[in-house]
């Protein structure tokens, strides 16, 4: 396998530009973010080559009519020589898709990586969030909304489980964590490239649109009026219906004003002595209950 020249200096312009993406300001101004590790990079590359808006082979030159969806597109790949030997398919893909790439030394890659033991590959990708009205439509069955969710691990995990449960989209309100934060991206385990994600919208806008498109809006909240998620029918809650689930902040849950934007609340019953469940665990139960009932 013939390799390009090795970038061995952190002062390389391409490396310096990529390093800026470790900061939120750099990501916001450029519209790009970093993806680290073989699993996430593989998913990013798979999405890139599968985006073919005009029915053409996305791996062929532009003059032949190939069209790549810019959202989520891989624009650069940095890989160590060792990683390139372990993952030759990455090199083959970037070559065929005409993506910029370079071999870098482990020291240079360490400037881009945020994990202690990097696995030798980092990609630069375009932002991939989409408009709200593109995901909340009359066909949507299950929408997941994160309202004021601040922990990147929770947000990434919920995106991953929403993908696994077959949800139509995940929406993060404007007060929630940056989905392009390295911890969030890593926590999605590649699901960020599978499921549509909306960012920067208000909860009232989401709930109003969802209701207008025929989805019920349920808050995951253990208030006095909440339905028992394991016995929903006893209190008239229909989990087979098209549903938008809203999950609140890790520390304080959902405020009264936010609850008023929802049609009803539902709580996961606790049968043991634990005081509560963490956000990602509670979300997994709620989302899968809807997914299961909708498929019965």
Automatic annotation (TrEMBL):
<dbReference type="Pfam" id="PF08032">
    <property type="entry name" value="SpoU_sub_bind"/>
</dbReference>
<dbReference type="InterPro" id="IPR029026">
    <property type="entry name" value="tRNA_m1G_MTases_N"/>
</dbReference>
<dbReference type="InterPro" id="IPR029028">
    <property type="entry name" value="Alpha/beta_knot_MTases"/>
</dbReference>
<dbReference type="InterPro" id="IPR001537">
    <property type="entry name" value="SpoU_MeTrfase"/>
</dbReference>
<dbReference type="GO" id="GO:0008173">
    <property type="term" value="F:RNA methyltransferase activity"/>
</dbReference>
<dbReference type="Pfam" id="PF00588">
    <property type="entry name" value="SpoU_methylase"/>
</dbReference>
<dbReference type="InterPro" id="IPR013123">
    <property type="entry name" value="SpoU_subst-bd"/>
</dbReference>
<protein>
    <submittedName>
        <fullName>RNA methyltransferase</fullName>
    </submittedName>
</protein>
<dbReference type="GO" id="GO:0003723">
    <property type="term" value="F:RNA binding"/>
</dbReference>
<feature type="domain" description="RNA 2-O ribose methyltransferase substrate binding">
    <location>
        <begin position="34"/>
        <end position="131"/>
    </location>
</feature>
<dbReference type="GO" id="GO:0005737">
    <property type="term" value="C:cytoplasm"/>
</dbReference>
<dbReference type="InterPro" id="IPR029064">
    <property type="entry name" value="Ribosomal_eL30-like_sf"/>
</dbReference>
<keyword id="KW-0808">Transferase</keyword>
<dbReference type="GO" id="GO:0006396">
    <property type="term" value="P:RNA processing"/>
</dbReference>
<dbReference type="Pfam" id="PF22435">
    <property type="entry name" value="MRM3-like_sub_bind"/>
</dbReference>
<dbReference type="InterPro" id="IPR053888">
    <property type="entry name" value="MRM3-like_sub_bind"/>
</dbReference>
<comment type="similarity">
    <text>Belongs to the class IV-like SAM-binding methyltransferase superfamily. RNA methyltransferase TrmH family.</text>
</comment>
<keyword id="KW-0489">Methyltransferase</keyword>
<dbReference type="InterPro" id="IPR051259">
    <property type="entry name" value="rRNA_Methyltransferase"/>
</dbReference>
<dbReference type="GO" id="GO:0032259">
    <property type="term" value="P:methylation"/>
</dbReference>
């Amino acid at each position: 396998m013939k390799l390009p020249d090795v970038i061995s200096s952190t002062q390389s312009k391409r490396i310096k530009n990529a390093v800026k993406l470790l900061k939120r300001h750099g990501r916001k101004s450029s519209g790009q973010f970093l993806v680290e590790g073989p699993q996430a990079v593989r998913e990013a590359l798979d999405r890139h080559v599968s985006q073919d808006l005009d029915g053409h082979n996305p791996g062929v030159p532009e003059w032949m009519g190939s069209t790549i969806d810019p959202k989520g597109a891989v624009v650069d790949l940095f890989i160590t020589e060792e990683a390139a030997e372990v993952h030759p398919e990455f090199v083959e893909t970037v070559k065929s898709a005409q993506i910029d790439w370079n071999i870098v030394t482990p020291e240079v890659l360490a400037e881009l990586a945020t994990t202690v033991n990097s696995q030798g590959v980092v990609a630069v990708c375009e932002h991939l969030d989409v408009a709200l009205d593109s995901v909340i439509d009359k066909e949507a069955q299950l929408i997941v909304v994160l309202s004021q969710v601040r922990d990147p691990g929770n947000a990434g995990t919920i995106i991953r489980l929403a993908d696994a449960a077959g949800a139509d989209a995940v929406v993060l309100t404007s007060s929630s964590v940056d989905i392009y934060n390295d911890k969030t991206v890593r926590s999605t385990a590649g699901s960020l490239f599978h499921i549509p994600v909306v960012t920067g919208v208000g909860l009232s806008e989401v709930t109003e649109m969802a209701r207008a498109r025929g989805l019920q809006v349920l808050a995951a909240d253990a208030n006095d009026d909440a339905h028992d998620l394991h016995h929903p029918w006893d209190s008239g809650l229909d989990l087979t219906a098209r549903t938008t689930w809203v999950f609140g902040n890790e520390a304080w849950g959902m405020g009264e004003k936010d609850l008023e934007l929802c049609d009803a609340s539902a709580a996961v019953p606790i049968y043991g002595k634990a005081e509560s469940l963490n956000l990602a665990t509670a979300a997994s139960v709620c989302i899968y209950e809807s997914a299961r009932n909708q498929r019965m």
